[in-house]
Amino acid sequence: MGIRMLWIRKLGLSFILLILIGSAFIPATSALAGWEGHSKTGPFVDSIEFKVIEDEYNGFRQIEYDELDITSEVIPLQCLDTLTGGEPWEISTTLKNGYGYFSMNCGKYPLNISAFRRAFALAIDKEAICDYVWDGLARPLDSVVPANNPYSAEDMLPESYYESKIDQATQLLDAAGFLDITNDGFREAPNGQVLNISILIPYGSQITDEIGEFAKEALESIGIAACVKAEDFYPYYQSYYYWHWLQQNDIIFFTNTFSVFDVDWLGYEYWSEYADEPYWNIPMFQNTSYDSWRDQLLFSTEYEDVYEAAIEMQKILAYECPIVPLYQNLILSVYGVERFTGYVNSVVDGVAGFWSGTKVHLQEVQSGYPFEGALRWGVKYGTESLNYLRASLVSDHPIYDFVYDSLLRIGPDGTDIPWLAESWFAETHADNPKVPEGVTRMTFNIIQNATWSDGTPLTAEDVAFTLNYYRLEIENHPVSTTLSNIQSAYALTPYQVIVEYNRESYWHVHNIAYKRILPKHIWTDVSEYDEYDPDIASFVSSGPFIVDSIGEYGDYVLKHNPNYFYRADRSSYHEEPDGYPDPSNDLTPGDVLQAIAVTLFSPDSGWYWSIIIGAELFIAFVIIKSRQFIADSKIDKKPKLYESNTSQLLDAFLRDL
Fold this sequence. Notes:
Elements: H1 2-22, E1 47-52, H2 56-64, E2 70-71, E3 89-95, E4 98-104, H3 114-123, H4 126-133, E5 138-140, H5 166-176, E6 197-202, H6 206-221, E7 226-231, H7 234-237, H8 242-248, E8 251-257, H9 266-269, H10 288-291, H11 294-299, H12 303-320, E9 323-336, E10 340-341, H13 354-359, E11 361-362, E12 374-379, H14 398-403, E13 408-410, E14 416-418, E15 421-427, E16 440-446, H15 460-473, H16 478-481, E17 486-493, E18 496-501, H17 508-513, H18 520-523, E19 545-550, E20 556-560, H19 589-601, H20 606-634, H21 646-656
Parallel strand pairs: 1-12, 2-12, 6-7, 6-8
Antiparallel strand pairs: 1-20, 3-9, 4-8, 4-9, 5-9, 10-11, 13-14, 15-16, 16-18, 17-18, 19-20
């Protein structure tokens, strides 16, 4: 009896040891820190309510009065003086990856004369705009690439336009034949045409009003008659008359915002062959010297060659002035902190972006159910369609980031984060002889737990279909331009997609990986992308939220997607109808036992897998020892007696294994 009990004790200690060893093999998902999960996990709110606001001032006031939690609009400068400490909101600052600029209509006389454009750039006082219009919360900019971009030539340009240089500007105009023929104080064009340059600014902003006046004063200071007009740009963005509208105006104020630091767009936005293409090359600029660098920028495979081309192209643009960059401002975002915390200040969007939408959560999550609440989000415009391809220049509306997915996402720090693609690699002929010479083959491995909102699996077929649809079915749209050199895209397996480019390029990964993926089973029957306008019932998406309702004035309500592939684990939380009591209060012994059972036997628990591994090894050990015991009995041997200390038990256990 003593021998049998000692053997059982040996097995019991071994089982405990196996459980402890097994805990080292817990799956990665269960090693996440608490309910917040890993960097991709979310969302943690129940819904996002997008509300159209009248202007940025109104948005700020609605946050102040607890009617909004966050707004995509920057804080009006006049509101800064009203901010006081201790209020239920906070402010974040981010140097904008973009800028404000004037676009010069290079297709219209006399703006097609570079001396005229350069004279305007020399006359306008960028430093004064930063100091007085932006109250010091902006920096002057000359390059078309923001100064904080590693490809920027801002510090390498041979000439600076920061401060006003009236004398140099007037000398340029004199030499080009812009003279005051009628002696009325204003110059005429070299062909004798009377000039009255129109400066078009967006309606409804004090900042753009003041910038328009700076431009008018700059032109008048060098003898050019000018006028300022304010219009609502939005209707033109949504109409077929957009290109005609651009051609009719002289100088238009725009803002540019970039979602990445890539600069391959330099090969499209100012390319001569796109001078008459809608939504590309807005200033209608044409220059052979600029075009000569395009192939090196777009089709080199080495960083040094790409960098050289980007710098030289910026220098040409800074001299020719098809656009006149003015400033790069700080993004000042205000957001409410009375109910929510966890906002993320990303280098691209600031606080009002994807990462805040998926990471904010209730302040008091320790007292109960954390996955609730509606994040109230102010936006300046609604969007005309759930089909982002119809939305033209407002396709950056935040709603689209929350209902569409891509192979990669831009992380809060600007780096790539694998999303639908869990891994990828590129091959050329030098890497793999099976790849034809001159071809770049991209292979993306797709995650295997993604689904569309209607339950259909999201696979490599959807990715391949999307890329082919963009490049073959859509023309004259920004989404298709960077895909023109794809020669094939196909699904090799349900979760592996191959994309082959007919030219090698440094930029191929990002040209593919940031595209929003469409559901093949829906879009197969869509022949005219700009006519497809799904309602909520027929709209199929894949993002962390799904569309719940659309309001009369362009307001949207998004509900969290319960089947999202990076969803937070809500299974351990149960919503209480009368609130969420503190679980540390009024615990009964039954509650404690139930909690232990959930901890030990939930598949999401590391201990669950420890027990499973330990039990399997324990059973195997019992079988081995049983056979050994039976064999020993048959030859009339007694089992050897082991001393009952842990060291010897461990040695014997490992020896038996």
